[in-house]
Inverse folding.
């Protein structure tokens, strides 16, 4: 069974920083893309940032220049450094991974979510 476990959420004032981490564990054959999504109250879940195995990165326009995603392929971890946080960044942040537990069977896995609250 594959699990994604997040850590690092919390409450911060506008302009502050937080660092989110996510570790994938369990029966893992390979991991393709990993990333972060977020869902604010009353809104749909949206992409924040993704990173592929070879380091190709994609950011949502709303976080470009403020957030940095990184990945450790050896440890199966992905990290999101969030700087210059704004109240509109408040959301539950979810770790996502496209993971194959069995060769050739890639599927999406999600973490349980971690709350990020930015006060004005």
């Amino acid at each position: 069974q594959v699990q994604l476990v997040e850590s690092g959420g919390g409450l911060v004032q506008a302009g502050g920083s937080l660092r989110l981490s996510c570790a994938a564990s369990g029966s893992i054959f390979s991991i393709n893309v990993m990333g972060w999504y977020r869902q604010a109250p009353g809104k749909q879940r949206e992409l924040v940032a993704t990173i592929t195995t070879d380091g190709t990165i994609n950011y949502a326009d709303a976080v470009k220049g403020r957030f940095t995603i990184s990945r450790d392929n050896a440890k199966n971890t992905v990290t999101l450094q969030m700087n210059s946080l704004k109240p509109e960044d408040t959301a539950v942040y979810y770790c996502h991974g496209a993971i194959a537990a069995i060769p050739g069977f890639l599927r999406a896995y999600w973490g349980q979510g971690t709350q990020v609250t930015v006060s004005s």
